[in-house]
Amino acid sequence: MSGAVTDLPFVQPVDGTAAEAIASIGDELALFDDWMDRYEYIIEMGRNLPPFPAEWQNDGHRVPGCQSQVWLEAHESDGRLFFAGASDAAIVNGLVALLLRVYSGRDRAEIEATDPTFLHDLGLVKALSTNRGNGVEAMAQAIRARARA
C-alpha cells in the first residue's frame, strides 16, 4: 500500500459504529415496498464502491464459499481495519458494499463483536437464493477472520 488508508479502494466508514451502520441499512431497506426495489438499492450500493484493482482480482484475494467471484483486501491503520472488495456479479457487489459499510474502518474488537446475524435480521439471507445467502455469510466470516488474524 503506497499511501494513507484514505487512498482508494478502501471503504471509509460513513456511520459511527457497526451497529449504527446496521440500523441505517435497515432503515434504508424499509423505505422500499418489495425486495425487487431493495435489490436495486443494494445493486446501486455496489456501483458506488471504490474501484477494486485488477491486480487484486486473483485467487489470493478470493473469498471461498461464494457462488460468484468475490475478492477482498484489508489494510490496517491506527488500529482499524479498512476493507476493499468487489464481485463479478452486480447483486453480490452490492452485498459486498453493504458488508463493507458495516465492517470497514472498525477496530478488530468491534468487527469480531459484530455477528453477521444482522444479515438474517434484515431479511437479506431469506430474500436471497440459498447460494447467495451462503455466500454473503461467507464474506462476513472472511472479514471477521481477517480481524482475528
TrEMBL record:
Coiled coil: none annotated. It comes from the Bacteria. Residues 28-145 form the Fe-S metabolism associated domain. It holds the Pfam family SufE. Belongs to the SufE family. This is Fe-S metabolism associated domain-containing protein. It comes from Asaia bogorensis NBRC 16594.
